[in-house]
Amino acid sequence: MVFIVKIVLLTNDNYFSYIATGKFLKNYKSDIALVVFSSALIGKRNALNSTLWTLKNTGIRHTIFKLSVYGVFKVTRILSQLFPKVICGCSTFLWVKKNNLKFITTDDVNSYECVETIKAACPDLIVSVSMNQVIKKEILELPVNRSVNVHCAPLPEYGGMSPYIWGLANKENYSAATIHYMDEGLDTGDIIVQEKISVLAGDSAFCLFHRCCSKASQLLMETIKKIDNGSVDSYPQDLSKKSYFSWPTKQSVVDLRQNGYCLAKFKDFYLAILTQKPRL
Fold first, then answer.
1. Number of other CB atoms surrounding residue 56 within 10 Å
2. pLDDT in tens, 83-136
3. What are the Cα distances from residue 266, in Å, to 10, 68, 141, 154?
4. Per-residue pLDDT tens for 175-213?
5. DSSP strands (E only) in the chain
6. Distance (Å, rounded) from C-alpha 232 to C-alpha 241?
7. How far apart are CA 21 and CA 163, in angstroms?
8. Is-above-0.85 flag for pTM?
9. How far apart are CA 204 and CA 163, in angstroms?
10. Neighbours of 29 (CB within 10 A)
11. Rounded to an integer, what distance in angstroms lies between the CA atom of residue 114 and that of residue 242?
12. ∠ CA(81), CA(86), CA(89), 5° rounding?
């Protein structure tokens, strides 16, 4: 029998990461010893230069999409503090502060100071959700029960960034929610559980990613329970089938639209604020 008593969460405070971790946060609050928030932007650029880089390399439509999601997240945070019984802030950071959990914010998770803070938490398990930094071996090998990551794609295919956009651009019939062990590779660790998420006619990247995150939230809970009672199984990825994608390109957004999809619809944002999730 394995007993998890201390968990370290590595995450990035955004709308979708909260959706993926919501159930975990509520059910394992007493076991969370530390939350590490990433403050890293693209190539350690500031906010303005990150936006300009995104505009230049991914195009205006994708840049507007990213800024819109960021804006929705900011709006929900503000409204949740004004109307806490009506609006959910969908913010891990606000939730952590409200529940008086220990946290740190870093633009370099592998820095000496951050590694020492994680070591001091003596984690039995590390959980990574939407962490936008590469985590090195020194951290991954700290917990007895290893480190697990949430990835919203059908690994070994679609490792890397924005798989929900690339999948629609490539006209895939499904995406997936995957929980896997972490190793020094990028999204290459053994898979614990994976469930396919169908692509719907006229889908948006926002809705598809939301469905994947919602399913990942459920799978993460099931995974931690199995790790806790010693019944977890895993299987290696067939890396001969591996594909890896970086930032979406301008052409990928064109392809997505030509395939009959879009990045987001107005109602996605409207319903995300009012109900936490788009109507599917």
1. 10
2. 777 667 788 998 899 899 999 999 999 999 999 999 999 999 999 999 999 999
3. 31, 10, 43, 27
4. 999 999 999 899 999 999 999 999 999 999 999 999 999
5. 7-11, 32-38, 103-106, 125-129, 147-151, 159-160, 174-181, 191-198, 244-245
6. 24
7. 19
8. yes
9. 13
10. 13
11. 31
12. 45
Query: How far apart, in whole angstroms, are the C-alpha atoms of residue 166 and residue 244?
Result: 10
Residue 105, classed as helix, strand or coil, is strand
Strands 174-181 and 147-151: antiparallel
Q: What is the pLDDT of residue 162?
A: 96
Taking CB atoms within 8 Å and a gap of at least 24, the contacts of 82-91 are: 87/273, 87/274, 88/276, 90/15, 90/18, 90/19, 90/272, 90/276, 91/13, 91/18
pLDDT score of 155 more than 90: yes
Nearest-Å Rg of the Cα atoms of the chain is 18
Annotate 251-280 with b (16+ C-beta within 10 A) or e (fewer).
Answer: ebbebbeeeebbbbeeebbebbbeebbbee
Residue 78, classed as helix, strand or coil, is: helix
Residue 277 has what pLDDT? 45
| Sign for the pseudo-dihedral over CA of 190, 195, 201, 207 | negative
- Number of C-beta neighbours around residue 73 at 10 A: 20
Q: Is the dihedral of CA 45, 46, 52, 57 positive or negative?
A: positive
Cα 178–19–73 angle (5° rounding)? 130
> What's the full length of the chain, in residues?
280
Residues 110-117: contacts with CB under 8 Å, at least 24 apart: 110/134, 110/135, 110/136, 110/138, 110/139, 114/36, 115/139, 117/34, 117/36
DSSP assigned state of 235: B
Angle at 153 between CA 127 and CA 31, to 5 degrees: 15
